[in-house]
Structure formats: C-alpha cells, structure tokens
Amino acid sequence: MARTGTGGQQGISGVERRSIDYIPLNERHGKAWEQGPFWMTGGMVLPSLLIGFIGPSLGLGLGWTLLALIAGMAFGTLFMALHANQGPLLGLPQMIQSRAQFGARGAMFPMLMAVFIYIGYNVFYFILCGDAVSVVLPGGKVWYIVFSVIALVIAIVGHDLLHTFQRWSSYFIIVVFAILTVVMIVHYPVHGAHPVASGWSFKAFLVQFAAAGGYQISYAIYVSDYTRYLPEETPQRKLIGWTFVGAMVGAGWMGCLGALIGAYIKEPDAISALHQVGDYLFPGFGAIIALSTIPAMVGTSGVNAYGAMLTGATIVDGIRHVQPTLRMRIVGLLVVSVIGTVLTLVMPADYLNAFNTFLGIMVYLLVPWTAVNLVDFYLVRRGHYSVDDIVNPRGAYGQWSWRGLTAYFAGFIAMIPFFSLSFYVGPVTKALGGADFSFVVGLLVAGVLYLLICRNLRATESYQRGSGAERQVVAL
To answer: Where are the transmembrane segments (predicted)?
Structure first.
C-alpha cells in the first residue's frame, strides 16, 4: 500500500475546530492502543450492566446467561470493530461515509437512526447518573441538567479531550470494579448463596444473545469518529484488535456483573444492587461504587453528543451545504444537549422497560446499515473511495443510491417476522416460542443482497486528498 505523508503527534491545541470535514495527514496523531481504554470505558457503563439482567429476569441460569452474554457481545463487537479501519484510511467521521452506499440524501435515513440512538443513550445515561449521585446527595432531576452540561463542555473541547477523559476514567474504573467483582464472587458463588434464577430456556438464551449482540453492534455508528485522527499508516489489524478488546472487555465485564447480580437478586435495580453488594465489603463502599459509575457515563454522554452533532450536521449538509466551523460544532452540540436533557426530564420512572424496547428498536434499525457499510468497504469497493465526493453532497455518489437503499430496506423488511418487542411480536418469533433471530436475518439479507446487486460495480473512484492530489488506497 502506497503512503504519502505521515501523521503528526502533537494532538489538537485547544478546542477542536474540525467536524465533518477531512482530517489532513499533518494533523493525524495517536496510536492504535489508545482505542483499547477508550472503548473499554465506553462499555463499562450501567446500561451494559442492565444487559446482564435480561437472562436471569427470564429465568435463565447464571452459566447459560454468561455464555449467551459473552457469545453475543463477541459477535456484535466483531462487527463494530471492523469499522475502525475506515477512520484512518478515509479521515472522515463514521456516518458521512454512508453517502458512498446510500447517496447524500439517501444516507439521511440511517443518519436519523444514528441520531436517535445517540440521544436515546444519553437519556438513559443521565437518568442513571442522577440515580447514582442520589445515593449520597439530594437534588433529584437537577442532576440531569448538571451532567448534561458537563458532557456538553467535554464534547465542545472535542476529540482529544474525549479520548483523554475516557482513558483516565478507565484506570479508576478498573480498580474499583476489580474489587467489586471479587466481593460479588466471594459473597455469592463461593459462599453458596441460592440463586433466584437457575433454569434453561432456549427462548431466554436467544433473547440474551441477541440483546448483547445488538447492544455491541450499536457502537458501530461511533467508531470512525474516534479513529479518523489516527495516522493513515496505523496497522489495521492492531487497530481492529485494540478496538475489539477494549469494547469487549468493558461491556463484557459489566454485563457479567449484571448477570451475577440478576441471578441472585430478584428484580434488581442497577444502582441499589451495586450499593447493596458494595456494602458487603464495608459500609459506605456501596456508595463509592455507585459514584464511580458516573465518570464513564458522563464521558460517554459527551461521546454521544459529539457523534450526534457530527451526524446531524451531515444531515443538514445533505439538504443545504454547511461550513464545518467551530460555531457550527457548538450550535449543533447545544441543540443535541437540549433535546437530550428535555427527553430525560420527561422520561417515565420505569426506564428499564423503556430501555429494553429502545434496545430492540435500535438493533432492528442498525443491523442492515452495518451490513451494507461493511460489505461495501471490505468486499465491494475494498477501500477505494473519493473523499472529495463523499464530503460534497453533489458529488459522484449522487443524491440517492438505489443499491444501498434496496439492500437496507430488504434487510429491515426481512426482519419484521422475527421482531420481538413489548408491543409487537412477529409470527416467526411466536412460532419459535419467542426466539429472536432477527439480527442474523438482517445481516445476511442486507449484506448478501448488497453484494449481489453491486457485483458489477467497479472500485474505480480515486481517493481524493484535501490538496486535490489523486491516488488509490486499498484497505485490504
């Protein structure tokens, strides 16, 4: 693979000024290993703990829950990590790259879906942060606003502060949750506590597997946003590996703790359960555990706001061209933060049921997109893209691309008979006793169909640089 230039290692000075524009080679910095702690912190949040509650709540025993959880997360994390290489090679945020598969306006649908996911996650993060701090301090919903503002400030400073905040948070979280893990194992399995969930259910196993896999796949919309500043020559296997390990360890660890809690505590609440288990070590340690969950969720809320801003700006740019200025970044972040805060304030108290429904919808919307995006990158164009035409909504990729849209909606429609939601259960899922195979169906149908209808599409686009120089880069 030819290379022309190397990345700088100085980092961003002050507030980041770039957004949906291309990152020049002389501004590239960072190393592949830094993706490990970044994604680990992103996974070590309370929603990951909630994923582990699902199996026991359906009567699935601890061993089967752990197997379904780990297998599902490994499956989903693989798809998520494969997006990592797109950042250094293209120098662009994740979702704007969808223009190559769907067209500048056709990509608006998956982009709207991404904004929904970003803001939806922040709603649950702010609620859980408020619950955590309420263990020791009063304040109620005012904490939602406080944490929203902190996340907003981190996102405004931008890419490098997000990486730094997540990386340093990971060191603290590892220590605290390592202690908690030992306490839980000693108190429950070692001391022979009687589990409240100990059975086997094929339906419950698949529900747990699908939830874990879908949860990890949902991070696919984030990845290039945080790898696009890496030098172009960053080793591809290392980058995928560090992204996979970080995301898998962080979310998997929390999910396993959730499974352990759910297996021994009937109808657990995330914060109260951590408080209860932590106090087994000494009174007050439970409060420390609850508070220690806040930095990761606040930092990840900043990550979500940043991603929503990038994606929202790309949507607007597809309708009317916008200049990627600092002012645009700040205005976009303010809009995203206000929407997220308002939704948090009106969210019902029973947020766990709402979270499970949100997770299901998110999987159904996201799976066909990630299939199309990865098949295009690795099998169809094989890394050959014109960056100039991606950032230009009137470029060579057009306004609407029938190939990507056809594959996406075919994958989504194929999933409908397999849906399993609180308000709708598909006929195939009913016939299978509730087993949800939808994500497998969506991946296969969207991916295979896109590959078939693109079989005559040749990867002939030149890889454009901001300087106007043309050359091709092959990803694999």
So the answer is: 38-55, 61-82, 102-121, 141-159, 171-190, 202-222, 242-265, 285-309, 330-349, 355-379, 400-425, 431-453
